[in-house]
Amino acid sequence: MANLLRRGIIQPLFRLSRRVARHRHARLTRLLYVFARDFCDTVDNRDFDLATNGECHLLEQLAPLAPEFEVIYDVGANRGEWSLAAHRYLPAAHIHAFELCAPIYRKLVDNIRSVPEIQPWPLGMGDCEADVEVWYSPNNDQLSAAHPLPHVPTEKLEGKVVRGDAFAREHGHQRIDLLKIDVEGMEHLVLAGLEELLSAGRVGMIQFEYSGIAHDTHFLLKDFYRLLEGHGFVLGKLFPDGVHFKRYERRDDDLLWANYVAVRTDRQGWIEALSSPDAVIRGQARSARATG
């Protein structure tokens, strides 16, 4: 059936698309290109809205496990939207929201003022304690970063970063149950500063952002997989219906924006709660083929 479908429908469509694509300057071709690009972005989940890109869904799936989440770090908290969502679904957790860019930190403080379970910190995290340059974007503060982004008007400010291990030790945090990192390409430095906790198995789950900035940092998705699998995590891409946990493939390093989730393999209940139905079905199919 699959071969008949391929020969009867898919291959003729491919041939037609190649003929149309040769007229790349035609208006219809440009409209089809925009539609196809938006379609691919939707399939790949290039969505920055917490409510629709799977981030809130992930927290909702964790809600029945709320007693297991006591300490949460939100590194790169921006205005606090994610911290507030985490508090909504995991209300008993103590959330530490880190934001090193002073103008954004002030907005964070205002937004979480009525939620005592969220503690703001005017700090970033890295692989050492240091004063760093931060490039603030007044027009869109979500594009502020530790290095200037192309074609984004920015102002150079100063901020401070600390090692996560040292911060946790100073504040008596024996473990981090959920670590969310969104620091515009410096995620690997945050992880380097948490080497002690990671090696000791005291970080239960990590959500981190991966994007084209990896082209500049030279820390690719394969490096995240190598690092975190070495610390006993299973990884997958976040989608609106859950996390597609899978082994790394070279084609995954597409430099397109995405959120990834890593969960320690000894947290099987968490993995099952977060897995997307598509990933579960594929896994069952693979198991059936292997035992059939």
Textual characterization of the structure:
40% of the residues lie in helices and 22% in strands. It is built from twelve helices and eleven strands. The chain has helices at residues 2-21, 27-43, 55-62, 81-89, 102-111, 164-170, 187-192, 195-199, 214-217, 221-230, 268-274, 277-291; strands at residues 71-75, 94-98, 118-121, 124-126, 130-136, 155-163, 176-181, 203-210, 233-239, 242-245, 258-264. An eight-stranded mixed β-sheet has the order 3-2-1-7-8-11-9-10, sandwiched between helices. A three-stranded mixed β-sheet has the order 4-6-5. Helix 3 runs parallel beside helix 4. The model is unreliable at 280-292 (pLDDT under 50).
% residues in beta strands:
15-25%
The end-to-end distance, rounded to whole angstroms, is 21 Å
The biggest beta sheet reads: 8 strands, mixed
Element-by-element helix/strand order? HHHEHEHEEEEHEHHEHHEEEHH
Task: Provide the residue-averaged pLDDT.
Answer: 87
Our Rg estimate from Cα atoms comes to: 21 Å
Report the structural category. alpha/beta
List the keywords.
12 helices; 3-stranded mixed sheet; alpha/beta; 292 residues; disordered C terminus
Task: Write the SSE topology.
Layout: H1 2-21, H2 27-43, H3 55-62, E1 71-75, H4 81-89, E2 94-98, H5 102-111, E3 118-121, E4 124-126, E5 130-136, E6 155-163, H6 164-170, E7 176-181, H7 187-192, H8 195-199, E8 203-210, H9 214-217, H10 221-230, E9 233-239, E10 242-245, E11 258-264, H11 268-274, H12 277-291
Parallel strand pairs: 1-2, 1-7, 2-3, 4-6, 7-8
Antiparallel strand pairs: 5-6, 8-11, 9-10, 9-11
Helix pairs in contact: 3-4
